[in-house]
Design a protein that fits this description.
The complex is a heterodimer. By secondary structure, chain A is an alpha+beta fold. Chain A contains 5 helices and 29 strands. The chains are: A alpha+beta, B alpha+beta. The interface between A and B is medium-sized, with 40 and 24 residues.
């Protein structure tokens, strides 16, 4: 019960602070009651129940020099919470605090209620000899009570550290209100040709902190991060042929699966095993490979192209592409029983399956008769087919966020291929980042720091 | 003069070969009622066709297998959309290529499989490999030793014609021959 642990942590921390600082008057609640409050929010904010109206206050900076710091953190926290699509963000009413004393905050819950805010969040930031402290408080309007209170510390004033601090708060808030792990801390790997060569890049979930991961001056394609973020698997042409490379971030070493034929388009089953298409036995089949590059076993055995494995969250089922019926369609194999069933029957050319971390849906692309490529989602039982993109050129390579609420994809709707983001129902489609050249084949990691 | 006569002979043989094999091999349409397969119809074997035309160089460096992107001794072969099946023209080109390889037994070749930019790129990487494999297997059936022929796929990553439309796309759906040292 992760959110209960969080509250326990914050209680421990605030008791310590109370003893040391004796500054804030803290509203303490029995653990079970607060847990119940969190549970209410979880019950209310199940999928489809609408956004949470959040009044986010600007951070106090007790010392004038820290006001710039406060402004930067304001933007980081606001943008982060806004990105999730979970909240309707509003400014708190001017009379939200009943008095002006910082040490004794009493919120005007009536004023919050009158502007429709369900939750209020605010706090202060201080800089003590280079150590940044962000003190945050979150209140529930309806119950007129504190939901949680926590301090976040960072060692430096640089953008990366400030983002880490701000996003740590965002993560706690989202996890408290939804009961699920958030996207804060997750990364997206993708291909970009901005240097003139197709290389692998990484960015944060919101498109910031761009980092180049390969520099082979060749062709690098289809990157995939292991769920724990320790390994990067990708298709690498540096040897002259498309081979599978697996890089270990902890020691920087890379292994190559050196089989004849192609080795392409990897998909991780868990943090130790990755599946990919190999053709060294004559036909293109999907094989399971360990992170050290050794082959475990073959997973498919049908004539023709088998490609693009994507696993269910428990690793027991695999969605993949097969052209055994002519043009490519998506199939699901139960890895325990070996049973294979066809998933897609609508559309003549269906590829690029991506299994939602929530477990219940698969996103994929259909190449339409008119030349467009569109992204669809379908239930894992084949029901509930839903089209997410339309009349927007070629939309490819969908990849789910770790919480299953968003999808990153490639679109050339404005000319060249760029990365786009949308909600899981196809809402709010917008570019993820601005960069030269083309960006494509994104893969959203599961792990969060 | 002699080369010109050779050219006419080759042309005549190609026409004859084309007629005889047309009924034996059909190229399935891209609507895909069957999976693209690297297997060639078994009714077409070297012993049934006419003798390979003698040639130490192609009859001309233009025509089916030769264009601005291919002027080596071995001509490229082209494929239909979403297909790795060899058309009659493709088979004839491969016969020419086999003849040259027969007469130049020290040479090795790399066969690159390519696709046009439509569809999705991972699938095209696999399709490109099937095209290269199909061309290689045909040459091996004609008697060229397998170790002399290496295959690789570039999918849609290294297009020849970067334009749009069927004219450009058709030029990219090929098995491209590169001589190796």
């Amino acid at each position: 019960m992760k959110f209960a642990y969080n509250i326990k942590t914050c209680f421990g921390m605030q008791f310590f602070r109370y003893v040391v600082a004796a500054v804030m008057i803290v509203l303490c609640f029995p653990l079970s009651l607060l847990a119940a409050e969190g549970g209410e929010y979880i019950a209310i904010h199940k999928e489809g129940s609408g956004k949470i109206v959040l009044a986010l206050n600007k951070l106090d900076a007790p010392v004038k020099e820290e006001s710039k710091l406060a402004q930067r953190l304001d933007a980081i926290i606001y943008d982060g919470l806004d990105f999730t699509g979970l909240f309707t963000m509003i400014s708190p009413p001017l009379n939200v605090k009943n008095n002006s004393s910082r040490e004794n905050i009493v919120l005007n819950f009536g004023a919050l209620d009158s502007v429709g805010a369900a939750v209020y969040a605010g706090g202060a930031v201080t800089n003590t000899s280079g150590t940044i402290s962000l003190d945050m408080e979150v209140y529930d309007t309806a119950g007129a009570k504190l939901l949680f209170k926590k301090t976040y510390n960072g060692k430096n004033v640089n953008e990366q550290q400030l983002r880490a601090i701000g996003h740590a708060f965002c993560a706690d808030l989202v996890e408290l209100l939804t009961g699920k792990k958030s996207i804060f801390g997750s990364k997206i790997v993708f291909v970009s040709n901005k240097t003139g060569f197709k290389e692998i890049y990484e960015c944060d979930f919101d498109g910031h902190e761009l980092r180049q991961l390969t520099n082979s001056h060749s062709i690098s394609l289809t990157p995939a991060l292991s769920p724990d973020g320790r390994y990067l698997a990708y298709t690498d042409f540096s040897s002259g042929r498309p081979a599978l490379s697996i890089r270990n971030f902890s020691d920087g070493k890379t292994v190559t699966v050196g089989k004849s034929g192609v080795s392409i388009d990897p998909g991780w089953r868990n943090s130790r095993e990755v599946a990919t298409t190999l053709s060294f036995e004559g036909d293109q089949e999907i094989y399971l490979i360990k992170a050290d590059g050794s082959i475990s076993r073959r997973l498919t055995s049908s004539k023709g192209i088998d490609l693009s494995p994507s696993f269910s969250p428990d690793g027991n089922k695999m969605a993949y592409v097969s052209d055994q019926n002519g043009l490519p369609q998506i199939f699901i194999e139960d890895l325990q029983s070996g049973q294979v069933s066809r998933l897609t029957f609508s559309g003549r050319y269906n590829t690029q399956p991506s299994w939602s971390p929530a477990g219940d849906k698969i996103a994929y692309t259909t190449w339409e008769n008119g030349g467009e490529i569109n992204i669809f989602t379908i239930g894992t039982d084949g029901s509930g087919l839903k089209q997410l993109t339309e009349s927007a050129g070629e939309n490819e390579s969908p990849s789910w966020s770790p919480d299953g609420r968003m999808i990153v994809f490639t679109s050339n709707r404005q000319g060249s291929k760029k990365l786009y983001i949308m909600g899981w129902k196809g809402e709010n489609q917008r570019p993820l980042l601005q960069s030269d050249g083309e960006q494509m084949q994104p893969c959203w990691s599961l792990f969060c720091q | 003069m002699k080369r010109k006569i050779n050219g006419i002979v080759i042309l005549a043989l190609m026409v004859t070969a084309g007629c005889s094999s047309r009924s034996a091999v059909t190229a399935p349409e891209a609507s895909g009622t069957q999976a693209p397969s690297p297997k060639i119809s078994s009714s077409v074997t070297p012993s049934e066709t006419v003798a390979l035309p003698p040639a130490s160089a192609p009859a001309s460096l233009s025509g089916y297998g030769f264009d601005q992107w291919q002027n080596g001794p071995l001509g490229d072969v082209f494929y239909d959309f979403d297909s790795a099946v060899l058309s009659t023209d493709a088979q004839n080109q491969l016969k020419q290529n086999a003849a040259w390889l027969e007469n130049n037994s020290a040479n090795k070749a790399l066969i690159e499989g390519h696709c046009d930019s439509r569809g999705t790129s991972e699938y095209n990487m696999a399709l490109g490999e099937r095209r290269a494999s199909t061309a290689k297997e045909y040459l091996v059936r004609l008697g060229i030793a397998s170790p002399r022929l290496e295959t690789v796929s570039f999918g849609e990553e290294r297009p020849f014609d970067t334009g749009k439309g069927e004219n450009a796309w058709a030029k990219n759906r090929r098995a491209h021959f590169v001589m190796k040292k």
